Amino acid sequence: MIHDLIRYQLDNLSSLKREHVLLVSLGCSWGKCAFCDYQDDKSSSVLACDAVNKKVLAEVRGKDVGASCLDVTCSASYTELPFTTMNYIRNTCVEKGITTVILEGHYIYRESNKFFTDFFGSCGIDVLFRCGVETFDESIREKRLNKGLPGVTPEDLAKYYQWINLMYGMEGQTFEQLKKDIEIGLKHFKRINLSIYTTVPGGPARDVDAISAFYNSDFYKELLSNTQVDIFDEWDEGNDHVVGHDD
After folding, report:
1. CA gap 177, 20 in Å, rounded
2. Is the pTM of this model over 0.85?
3. Strand stretches in 28-178, DSSP E
4. CA of 118: how far to CAs of 114, 123, 125, 164, 210, in Å?
5. d(CA 109, CA 74)
6. What pLDDT, in 10s, does the model give residues 89-141?
């Protein structure tokens, strides 16, 4: 697993105040996304996963910090967390007064969503499901990013997911494509997480000029005021834009 990751954060910037936890999974069975550098954050040992995840979940404060939502991510899909960890998540929600949990997963696991709705619902906890789409431009999504969503339409996704992840800032993407992605996303989903891309080994290059143009655009200002959109730029080291997980 990767030992220098920030695994807990309180997001006070979003219109939906929530706590984020980054947990350790058993591994991503898809594992082909060209932009992902988290795939090594895993363990084949349930005990090792649980040891880290229990420690991270102990940082969750819920009602003590005025947060009633827990956003759960990992290096894979939520279905690839140990079920013992899932029990820890549910118990934490109950103990801390959290009423909504967000689970992120690949489209191939969509039929599992209903089981987790029941699992958390039995304790009065609502579940929102989020899927990484990255872009609705299928040529980029499948040929360059290897997302594994061939032929999947926004309508297909919306049957199972309320939130989506989009990504912008890699070479080959255009500003017009971003606008189209946002338009489609807002039409079909309750919320969008827009991640600003950074280069990973073997992946597409980060387009610094395109990202700079975005941050200096009126469109960026519009998105900042849109309560359905959160912007994340993990590599904005100077925190110049005060977005997402920057602290």
Report:
1. 29
2. yes
3. 69-74, 100-104, 126-134, 163-168
4. 6, 9, 9, 21, 43
5. 15
6. 999 999 999 999 999 999 999 999 999 999 999 999 999 999 999 999 999 99
Residue 151 burial by Cβ neighbours in a 10 Å radius (0-12, 13-18, 19+): exposed
Q: Give the separation between CA 174 and CA 180, rounded to whole angstroms.
A: 10
Token pair belonging to 71: 């956003």
Q: Which of 246, 247, 243 is nearest to 220 (CA)?
A: 243
CA dist 91 and 88 (Å) reads 5
Strands (E), the chain: 8-11, 18-23, 69-74, 100-104, 126-134, 163-168, 191-196, 229-232
Measure the CA dihedral 148/151/153/156, to 10°: -80
What does 88-124 look like in DSSP terms, one character per residue?
A: HHHHHHHHHT--EEEEE--GGGGGGHHHHHHHHHTTT
